[in-house]
Write the structure tokens for this entry.
Amino acid sequence: MAIPHPSKPGLSPDARQPEESHPGGRCELASSAEGQLARTTGELQGAKEALKQSEDRLAGIIESAMDAIISVDEQQNILLFNPAAEKMFGTSARDVIGKRLEHLIPERFRAAHAQRVRNFGETNQTRRQMSGGMGCLLGLRADGTEFPAEISISQMEARGQKLFTAIVRDISERKRVEDALRENHARLQRVLEVQTVGVLFLDLTTGRLVDANDTFLNLMGYSRSDVEAGELTWQELTPPEHLEVSRAEFRKLAASGRVGPYEKEYFCKDGTRQWLLFAGSSLGGNSCVEFCVDIADRKKAEAALRQSEERLRALVNASSDVVYRMSPDWCEMQQLDGRGFIADTTAPISDWLPVYIDPDDQAMVTQTIQNAIRNKSVFELEHRVRQTDGSLGWTLSRAVPRLDASGEIIEWFGMASNVTARKSAEEALRASERRVRALMESTAEAILGDDLQGNCTFCNPAALRLLGYDDQAELLGKNLHAAVHQSQRDGTPLTSKDCPIGQAVRGGYPFHSDDLVLWRKDGTCFPAECWAHPVLDEASAVGSVLTFLDISERKRTQASLLESEQRLRLFIEYAPAALAMFDRDMRYLHASRRWQADYGLGDRDLKGLCHYDVFPEVSEQWKEVHRRGLAGEVLRSENDRFERADGSMQWIKWEVRPWYETGGGIGGIVIFAEEITERKRAEEELSRKVEDLARSNRDLEQFAYVSSHDLQEPLRMVASYTQLLAERYRGHLDENADKYIAYVVEGTTRMQTLIHDLLAFSRVGRNGRERQNLDLGDVLDEAAENLKASIEESHAVLTRGKLPTVHAERSQMVQLLQNLIGNAIKFRGENAPRISISAECRGRQCVFAVADNGIGIAAEYRERVFEIFQRLHTRAEYPGNGIGLSICKKIIEQHGGRIWVESEPGQGATFKFILPAGQIASKKPKESAHVYATSA
């Protein structure tokens, strides 16, 4: 209610008379007016405080928002354009405030978008999430590029006019936008233009008002020419009682880069005063920006308060991000709206850190909070949080401090985005990149990449190796065609225009060839198989990937294969046997001339003809053989007898086996046939002769055995009576008689020894005992015991190594070792005999060695010593009939082995023989270096 002023014109003296004639009434009216004024002043002051808190929160929200916030009126004129919007659309608020919203929408969507916004305004809904069915999902930057966006829109009424606030999120460049928000934070207050907020730019050095928006100028009654004149300063605009407060605030601004909020009065142009609420930020250098709100008029303050509250509510409701408030020291989370991402907090909690933050990230979060509190700066961090379902998620959290008039933190207001999907995608991308890098580095295939200009963008180690380069820096950025594909195989230049790889990439289709030539760094070339694939970006090629292999070896293999096939054809054609090669359908691939001759086919060309068409009379039996061969079976017969058409009998040796293709499948069969009728007849004749010879040998052995056995009895009689004559008549007859009797005795003795040795030789292999596993150590013990007298008489030293078990007949093994040891004692030199027996097993055979230090054997006699009755010395030098080594040879050969001697005259001799090893050792082998006898 307005209170009339006594001096105000329009009141007659009569109208003032009652007050003059009734002083008491005048005092009562004055008292009532003063009370009304006090109440009004109190309400105004409360409104100021509410407005201050609301504006602080609004400024904090707008300042910390990571999404674009755009407000427009019903005519689609832009009223608010926050820094995120500037970064997102690539333009400043100064350039778009007051312009129509259609400048931010692709032209093809403008009409539809305007109609949908009008329809939304008519619904009286306060909020709506815009999707594919409503609104524009593409934004238009100042440079003409488009980007996909998520948009939430809300509407409200202020002063009878509808206002629309849109929250726009660039879903393709979110991270970049967030970074841009941090970078453009200092510019936020400079470009903000709203109808209820005045903006002024000051030179901190002189205090001069450099610029101001129309809201400030209209509020204060100044014109833009007043500002341009350069005569307005904050000192001149500030009443004297507010100068000290202003100086203190600007000192804070210089120290922290921020000022306010604080209140003071400014002089209007007409000399009146205007209360304003200020807040500002440094713009760097000597400039700053201040925002002010008119708080003089209560109605205006209430309207501004309601508008501010509505904007705050619309912003919070429209945002899909988590919104939270923290105490000044972050010890208490005062409120949190988790948006279904993390659990809500309606009541303050102090143990919020372990409840919401992953244990591994708590230290990092705490350190970042402490830094933000210490510097009174923005808190911003990506970290892991516990989601509502208990799993871990990722969030990008950003909070700004709200300061009081003295610059102290009152609370923190923050917003957090769910970036779990992005982090998962980034990790998947990193994992994919690692796998691709590992694949490129480990694959044997060479891989190159190029852009549309043909310049190399990447190359793997295999490519460097095949092309002869040491480092990828030698290829990166270089034109690949000029480096590796500039010429054809004969050296003829190949232009990039004619290059088939380049044509394929420019055409946007894959390319493959196994007949290209690539050039190395040293100027040499090699044949290559190449694959080229275009790299597409929204259906247009931006480059290509080239994969290639050095197929020099393949080319050589192919040439060798052709040569091999030619040799195969010639081999089959000129093979001396009947040979033919068929495919799976029994069609001729190759046939030898012998095949054609044997089967009376002359010079007929058989290639491609079916065998059953050439020989319709082929029996089912042979067809079954062919089928089994084609199934993978190898069939053969060494002597197949069948009757020819003329009735004669014929013997055939044949074989049918499959041949395999490169891939492993059966390609057909090969048939080999050889007539062996004459050989069969010769074998039958040979078999008859062998049987006759074996029968003759048996008869001879029997004769030798019987003769040697039957001759012993009359020979003993002759020897006995001759010895009686010698004993009885020695000295009674003349000398000749004594000599002749001695000759008879000596002859009969030699004859007895010869018959005894011959009998021993014939008995080898006759009436043999069953073979068994024998420990050669035990056999050697028995042989040494039999030769004990000779060993002691000759002072021989007999040693042995480890001897294995062999599968043999015991008595023959004793005789074998006894003969070899006795032979070494007999043919000793001047020194006492030293004989060693050793063995070395090799697989299923054992090689034995009996070595001595005797007189040795010349090389020309090494075979002769094993022949029966062959002697190298006279009986006067060395007694014996030359049959002992023959018996050894016969024993070894009957056991499936062989025997030989290694010797040099005067160097001793080593007799070696091979026997099959026994399967099971009967006892532990004797220890090495076992000594049977020592010299006296």
Notes: The CA atoms of residues 193 and 858 lie 124 Å apart.
